[in-house]
Design goal:
This protein is α/β, with parallel strands linked by helices and 355 residues long. 32% of the residues lie in helices and 22% in strands. The protein folds into 2 domains: 14-236, Rossmann fold (3-Layer(aba) Sandwich); 241-353, no CATH class. It contains 14 helices and 12 strands. The strands form 2 sheets. An 8-stranded mixed beta sheet has the order 6-7-8-3-9-10-12-11, sandwiched between helices. The chain has a 4-stranded antiparallel beta sheet with strand order 2-1-4-5. Strand 1 and strand 2 form a beta hairpin. It is globular. The two termini are 29 Å apart. Mean pLDDT is 89; it is low at 2-10 and 346-355.
């Protein structure tokens, strides 16, 4: 997709700027591109929800922001980080050692989806915290006091959790302990890759609520990657929908929920249960996400799209503004609204939303 540069709002302070960023894997001379020339701005202080089906490129975007794509993956393009108190840093130009010394953990943290695999089973939670503190030159006493405060913020008893081994904690406790570890060095940004995927619904919602509290208390920017639109809509200021390794719709959360303009976004909304609509109204999305080696010509969604026309099979729509702070990569957003209904959320105008 040939994208236009995201429109900057005059009242928005950009903390991450991605330009023409791609991630590709070269497997024995056969290249697979799993993030395709994306342009995107993340705003300071926001909670950004990055959503889409499995295999859409969400995790690759998150990893590219931190230049943390594992080999043999290769990142191209530029990711620029704008600290509040010093000059911009081109993250994609830094070596692995420079990233560890200057950026990761201290400026930005990455929280993975499986706390069980993130923790070393032979070390206590306290030892994990100490290892991170010492690796970045933070005093043990000062750092552990912050760890205790973070545990209490996340409704964990530090006297119980810190001396425990990971297997002695429940899944929800481990995930909260991992969140505390992510914030222990007071970063500006926390990137979370499906952090609640392995938890039950009640614990997912509890952790999302706690994340909102942590974000406000410690003045964080959150980038939350998930396939669960309902869950992320509880805390996200803005949603960015990905399909076939690129962004296809970006807008404030309420606008996505009530007036989504892309057929794929509307299909996603119809595929998840809501309190206001019976489960019988849920509909799956026919077909499957494209193979990175065989992305369709034209609009990548056209083989699954109920309103696709000949133009969609030939030309690739740009991610263009259709409304203030709302962009979509679709030639027919008005037709999508009128022909593809979405569940009512109570937050918008039913007629405008096409429900």
């Amino acid at each position: 997709m040939q994208t236009t540069e995201p429109p900057r709002q005059s009242d928005k302070d950009v903390i991450f700027e991605a330009r023409d960023v791609s991630v590709s894997f070269d497997m024995e001379g056969d290249e697979s591109r799993v993030l395709d020339s994306v342009d995107f701005d993340v705003y300071r202080g926001e909670t950004l929800g990055v959503v889409g089906e499995s295999g859409s490129g969400k995790s690759m975007f998150a990893s590219a922001l931190l230049n943390a794509v594992v080999e043999p993956g290769q990142v191209t393009g530029d990711v620029t980080y704008y600290p509040e108190d010093r000059d911009p840093v081109t993250v994609t130009d830094l070596t692995e050692s420079e990233l560890k010394e200057e950026i990761r953990w201290k400026e930005m943290a990455f929280v993975v989806q499986s706390a069980q695999s993130a923790f070393n089973p032979t070390m206590t939670i306290r030892q994990h915290y100490i290892e991170t503190l010492e690796a970045h030159g933070v005093g043990r006493q000062e750092g552990l006091e912050r760890a205790r405060e973070l545990c209490r913020d996340l409704y964990l008893n530090p006297e119980q959790v810190l001396p425990s081994y990971p297997h002695e904690l429940s899944g929800g406790m481990k995930q909260r302990a991992l969140l505390a570890l992510g914030v222990i060095l007071d970063p500006e940004v926390v990137v979370l890759d499906e952090p609640t995927a392995a938890l039950d619904l009640l614990m997912q919602r509890a952790i999302v609520s706690l994340l909102a509290d942590i974000k406000e208390k410690y003045d964080l920017t959150l980038v939350f990657v998930t396939h669960d639109l309902n869950l992320i809509s509880l805390i996200a200021d803005r949603l960015a929908v990905m399909y076939a390794f690129e962004f296809i719709e970006v807008a404030p959360t309420e606008r996505i929920l009530n007036d989504a303009a892309h057929p794929y976004t509307r299909a996603l909304l119809n595929a998840v249960p809501t309190i206001s609509a019976p489960i019988s109204t849920m509909t799956g999305i026919p077909g499957s996400t494209p193979n990175p080696k065989d992305v369709p010509a034209g609009c990548s969604y056209n083989p699954r799209c109920p309103i696709a026309k000949e133009e969609c099979r030939i030309d690739d729509p740009q991610l263009d503004p259709i409304h203030e702070e709302h962009s979509a990569a679709c030639f027919y957003p008005d037709e999508a609204r009128s022909e593809i209904g979405i569940p009512a959320t109570g937050g918008g105008d039913d007629e405008e939303g096409g429900r």
